[in-house]
Design a protein that fits this description.
single chain, 212 residues, alpha/beta
């Protein structure tokens, strides 16, 4: 049995792959701000039926519980609270239930190392590829994983920050890290940053292997 954290969890394709391989998952945690993705995750991995305690919550209760979270309805930018207020109580219940059942940290940039449990076996971190892929470059997304560039793909470095915070606080790091992304990550344009990332992981004590 493996305990799992999925950063940039999306609809949970990596958790599903592990299950399809016959690997039993114990405790699991996610981190995803796109409401469409994490509601789908909840339906795929848990249930489409809402818990009774959530069904009892009023719209005001739900808005109060969700107001401080960085949620997105586009996957590109944070949604304003006034937009959240326009959602029906049924939709808000589904959003809240999905966050609760998936142990969703929501915003990777706000997640700190002290919130990651110590007994994690696998941490996946398939960060956004828009600023790396050939399709993204066609649309003008060319900042890659450059640090402090503000690109979605540069969220990779948040993972390093979280792991470093765990190490500094003497917490046991996840045993295995798993990344999936586009082949362009290994291109000449991005290879310098990728090698820096590998060196950062080695500094944390990880042995690295990567494959096309």
């Amino acid at each position: 049995m493996y305990n799992l954290v999925e950063l940039f969890s999306g609809i949970g394709s990596q958790a599903k792959a592990l299950k399809n391989l016959g690997i039993e998952i114990g405790q699991s945690y996610t981190c995803e701000w796109d409401i469409h993705a994490f509601v789908a995750y909840d339906a795929i991995h848990h249930s489409a039926v809402l818990p009774f305690d959530v069904l009892k919550m009023s719209k005001e209760d739900l808005l109060e519980a969700l107001k401080d979270l960085s949620l997105s309805n586009s996957g590109k930018e944070a949604m304003q609270y006034k937009t959240l207020r326009t959602y029906s109580v049924d939709v808000l219940r589904r959003i809240y239930a999905a966050i609760q059942r998936s142990n969703n940290f929501v915003d990777v940039s706000a997640l700190t190392g002290d919130k990651i449990p110590e007994d994690i076996d696998i941490l996946t971190y398939s960060f956004p590829c828009q600023d790396l892929s050939n399709v993204g470059a066609f649309h003008g997304y060319n900042k890659g994983i450059d640090k402090n560039s503000g690109s979605r793909s540069s969220l990779l470095w948040q993972v390093g920050r979280i792991l470093e915070e765990m190490k500094v606080s003497d917490k046991r790091l996840p045993r295995f890290l798993l990344l999936e992304n586009v082949p362009a990550l290994l291109s000449e344009r991005h290879m310098g940053n990728f090698n820096t990332w590998i060196q950062d992981l080695e500094h944390l004590g990880y042995l690295n292997k990567y494959f096309l």
